[in-house]
Design brief:
The chain has ten helices and twelve strands. It is α/β, with parallel strands linked by helices and 286 residues long. Helix 1 links the parallel strand 1 (2-3) and strand 2 (26-30). The mean pLDDT is 91.
């Protein structure tokens, strides 16, 4: 688990303590949080949540933080469950995920993820390398009781993936040079290329408070890294002009207008972040 916000983290830990299938080990990686949050995290270690905290001396970003946490595992694990700190999981979710992975011969699985209004946030998706986008199937739709069949997916979000040991080791974990966002798309693409089967288990439910572990949603940091890393990632699958003017042009336009669609707060900071992200993304690919 990567760590950022103690309020959300405490709720996440509380839900983990109620799992019917208990994990062998719970690891929290503190990505150089504020002194106040770090002090609260130390307090949480004294409570009955049963987790180990690894304190980083600088912010390594999401992917690197997760990788360091897993490297610190003492148990002989067969599966690793990566959770954003703003996730809440249902008691039966881990057991259902692991059972489905065994019966379906899958190496990467995600629970059905709902938002705080019980609407679908993730129920499978796809990564389109030509358009430079990752899609969530059914996002924003009303949740209906799921059936028992698993959902095949070519994209698994990084919010709550359960990954087999062999897949994690072969893929080398998350890519670390992206710092924040698009690591899950990269991992999904590499998993597909390696022949791993990815599924969503509808009966395994969880809830995601999107943006709760960063700056509350769509802020300058989000816009910068989403813009930059989209170009950095998908440039590896085609020319950069295709992302800017070709089939990926519409997605580029959507991201360029995101600052104006995300509210007036910090508007110009978000505009600058978007432009910087695009420029830096192109620069990295040269």
């Amino acid at each position: 688990m990567n760590y950022n916000s103690t309020g959300y983290l405490e709720r996440c830990l509380r839900s983990l303590s109620k799992l019917e299938l208990a994990p062998q080990e719970i690891l929290v990686y503190d990505n150089s949080s504020s002194p106040r949050d770090r002090a609260r995290l130390i307090e949480l270690t004294k409570e009955d949540y049963g987790f180990t905290c690894i304190f980083g001396d600088k912010n390594l970003g999401f992917g690197a933080g997760v990788n360091r946490a897993i490297m610190s595992a003492r148990s002989g694990w067969d599966y690793v469950w990566v959770l954003n700190p703003d996730m809440i999981v249902a008691p039966s979710s881990l057991g259902l995920l692991s059972d489905a992975m065994t019966s379906q011969e899958s190496d990467i699985a995600s629970p059905l993820i709902l938002d705080c209004n019980d609407k679908i946030w993730f129920a499978g998706g796809d990564v389109d390398t030509k358009r430079g986008r990752a899609t969530h199937v059914g996002i924003g739709e009303a949740f209906k009781s799921p059936g028992g069949d698993v959902i095949e997916s070519t994209f698994i979000t990084g919010a709550a993936p359960l990954v087999s040991r062999r897949a994690w080791k072969r893929l080398g974990g998350f890519r670390e040079d992206l710092f924040l966002y698009w690591e899950d798309a990269d991992l999904s693409l590499r998993a597909m290329q390696a022949g791993y089967r990815m599924i969503v288990v509808p009966e395994a439910k969880s809830w995601h408070h999107q943006g709760g572990s960063s700056e509350g949603g769509v802020g300058p940091t989000y816009i910068y890294y989403v813009q930059r890393n989209r170009i950095v990632l998908f440039r590896e699958y085609g020319p950069v002009y295709g992302l800017l003017f070709g089939r990926g042009g519409f997605e580029t336009f959507k991201l360029a207008t995101l600052p104006f669609r995300s509210g007036k707060k910090d508007l110009w900071q978000k505009v600058v972040a978007s432009l910087r992200g695009m420029v830096d993304g192109i620069r990295v690919t040269l």
